[in-house]
Input
Amino acid sequence: MAKVKSLADLKRMKDALQSKMDLREKSNDPEGLVQIKVAMATCGIASGAKEVMEFLIEETAKRGIRTVVTQTGCMGYCYAEPTIEVHLPGKEPIVFGDVNIKKADEIIEKYIKNGELVDGIIPVNYKTLD
Amino acid sequence: MKDLSLHIMDIIQNSVRAEASNVELEIKEDLEKDIYSISIKDDGCGMSEEVVKKVTDPFFTTRTTRKVGLGLSLLKQSAEQTGGKLEIHSKEGVGTVLEVLFSHKNIDRPVIGDIAGVMVLLVSANPNMDFVYRHCTAKGEYIFDTKEVKEVLEDVSVTDPNIMKYLKELINENLNTII
Output
């Protein structure tokens, strides 16, 4: 497929995408979506959060999981960056630490798809020292 | 930070937190004058003179989750290592301008890295903000303006993974002609 080089190309690709999208079920209910927040402060970015975020956006779309991936600031777990918070519909949000691409893949396959917990969870009762 | 694009991503998060609605990033390369400059301008809440004096101190932060603020100090160190400098001008209620100067030829200057990926992530994570990215070299200039992009996309969101891929391609293809 030809590469997108100009705004005109972008419009063409968008139109092609839109015609495909109309066939799919259109639902904008955020409650039914998996919400993932990637911590993207200095600590997160320096530890590779950008690659993890790109991976999560690309792979959840490829694997047909309806997800919203957003950025958040530092949650105070700088020692465990990159950290991500996964909020499955109807469940409490869970924070995972030390998430590299391999771990992100495991989280998608086991936790997001099957609700199975994986290693690396940062407990909610954990508090940073003042 | 591995490269300049990650620094830029980190610094623009400050603009996001300052509730800016417009962010302008400009990168200028001038090999003759040995200049590689990055400027980031936002219309966020701005800072008082007192805060501006302290922001590059690694032990200063406005956050409460931790006691260090390394983003600006790391970028400053990176610039100074090449003989360059970092300057911040800010006015409360108006916005902030950050200017970083690197020596283009210096071996310690980090490479630009995946700037297209960084811009696309910033745009998709903050769909309500507008970004302008201007890159000038001796070969020419490229401007990526999210206002134009959103006009073309109409009701399709910039957060769509396919659109993100196209935007990244658009920036990369154009940058390749001037870098």
